[in-house]
């Protein structure tokens, strides 16, 4: 079955630019969101506004959710006014939010009972990747559904991979978030060391680009740190949620993840000041800076 | 003054391929090394073997040292049989070993007293970068000497940067090593999480390449981890030395580097088994794996 009509639930910082790219590729879009601002914009571009998640889903071949966390996803899909109540056999539900792998695993049998399919397909690449349609998409779940969704994924992303059964996409996203968080910490410590020992961190970053210390984080987040531009991008609060998911998985499988555990504490410290948790995750460098200037009462 | 004859002291895992690239570019080379195997090879390629560091230095326009640590560098340059005893005005000494920034700072005035110049110019890129002549070179010290050495640096490296006064090269190398170490830890934790929760870490690595989690370490060291290829490359013992330098700088400037401190302990754990410290630094993943399977007596 070729997918023509998509019910998109959640048109926030990620869902909104994804919706624009889907409209651009000729998909019919039923949109639903709590706040109405982005919905009005999308209606101007040809989307149809709907009153509830169930209404967004009712005439759609595929449903995409892009929501803040797993709790909201469960409510939108399996709640009293949820998608599950109107779902028809053969329809594909794709949750692109970042959640625990337990969220899709819990929902899967409910959805299979209706003859429908479920994919967990979280993304990486942030707001910019969503705007440019270059998101990395990490997919787990029903493989035949993955193949059907491929043209849709290609409208919003670039590096698209099937990782395995339900939850595998979320586990991969979790691995992604561990690496990004620890690399932000790595770049923070390196730039603070350079700065405080009197070497210009701007030139240090230039010198390290392209070598073994090279990373996308050194490029993107390193620049943000040096320009003191902490407008998100990816929020500390979001990364804090993802780090908690990683530590929950670690607890479940008895894994030793000392770097991830350390980062979870640094996110806490970064959130201590009002508004801290809403800054870009590259603002982690300020924790390292502040701790390197701690003032104690004597 | 155009540099024609170079005294190269230290022709080990890094110095040997550097020497070959210098010979290829037409430089006359006086070589000295403790073990004679690499010296014999280089003599076949046109180098002149010498009996001591001082003899390697005596007729040279420039001297390059590539040695295991700062203590050896100080001995070779300022020791009783050292380079300092034969050095002529205008000669440039370039130490390309990785040392504390204190090493060049200590040596600088001794060398200036002879009318000679000193650069600290540690490298990144490992054995492969040295073979290919694509090393990243991070230079501190006498700026006019840096400009004179530029053609020599171009024979062995690619990304060549002047960072500032004496020690600035070593501080930058230290920043490099912090980032590489923490990124190795990041990739280790992510791959162990994927593996132990049942997702193929090979596909996870593929899915993350090119996205925000992308790094040279994910590419090079990630592949080594997955192929269980821990032949060095960069040894754990070397990175352990560099991490100690980072923590010494942190102590001096009262810096808070919790990730670097954590890594220093993980290097210790990685060195617990006979031969562990001689493995490639990507073998750090085995500490994470082993700790995730710790067996306790009951």
List the secondary-structure elements of chain A in sequence, H or E: EHEHEHEHEHEEHEHEHHHHHH
Taking the alpha carbons of the first and last residues of chain A, their distance comes to 73 Å
Domains of chain A, number? 2
Assembly category: homodimer
User: Which structural class do you get from the secondary structure elements of chain A?
Assistant: alpha/beta
What proportion of the residues of chain A is helical, as a percent range? 40-55%
Query: Which CATH architecture of the largest domain in chain A is right?
Result: 3-Layer(aba) Sandwich
What does this structure look like?
Chain A is 51% helix and 14% strand. With 298 residues, chain A is α/β, with parallel strands linked by helices. Chain A folds into two domains: 5-165, NAD(P)-binding Rossmann-like Domain (Rossmann fold, 3-Layer(aba) Sandwich), CATH 3.40.50; 171-292, N-(1-d-carboxylethyl)-l-norvaline Dehydrogenase, domain 2 (Orthogonal Bundle). In chain A, strands 1, 2, 3, 4, 5, 6, 7, 8 and 9 form a nine-stranded mixed sheet that branches. In chain A, helix 8 (168-196) packs across helix 11 (236-253). The longest helix of chain A is centred in the middle third of the chain and has 29 residues, at 168-196. The mean pLDDT of chain A is 96.
């Amino acid at each position: 079955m070729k997918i023509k009509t998509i019910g998109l639930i959640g048109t926030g910082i990620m869902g909104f630019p994804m919706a624009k790219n889907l409209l651009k590729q000729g998909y019919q879009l039923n949109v639903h969101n709590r706040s109405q601002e982005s919905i009005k914009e999308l209606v101007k571009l040809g989307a149809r506004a709907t009153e509830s998640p169930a209404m967004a889903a009712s005439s759609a071949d595929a449903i995409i959710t892009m929501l803040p966390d797993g709790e909201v996803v469960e409510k939108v899909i399996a709640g009293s006014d949820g998608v599950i109540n109107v779902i028809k056999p053969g329809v594909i539900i794709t949750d692109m939010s970042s959640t625990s792998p337990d969220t899709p695993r819990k929902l899967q049998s409910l959805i299979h009972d209706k003859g429908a399919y479920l994919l967990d397909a979280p993304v990486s690449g942030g707001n910019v990747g969503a705007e440019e349609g270059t998101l990395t998409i990490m997919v787990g779940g029903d493989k035949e559904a993955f193949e059907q969704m491929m043209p849709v994924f290609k409208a919003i992303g670039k590096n698209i991979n099937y990782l395995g059964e339900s939850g595998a996409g979320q586990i991969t996203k979790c691995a992604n978030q561990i690496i990004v968080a620890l690399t932000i910490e790595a770049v923070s410590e390196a730039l603070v060391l350079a700065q405080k020992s009197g070497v210009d961190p701007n030139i240090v970053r230039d010198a390290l680009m392209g070598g073994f210390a090279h990373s996308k984080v050194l490029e993107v987040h390193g620049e943000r740190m040096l320009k003191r531009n902490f407008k998100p991008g990816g929020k500390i609060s979001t990364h804090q949620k993802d780090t908690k998911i990683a530590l929950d998985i670690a607890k479940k499988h008895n894994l030793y993840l000392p770097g991830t555990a350390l980062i979870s504490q640094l996110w806490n410290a970064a959130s201590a000041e009002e508004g801290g948790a809403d800054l870009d995750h590259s603002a982690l460098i300020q924790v390292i800076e502040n701790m390197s200037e701690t003032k104690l009462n004597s």
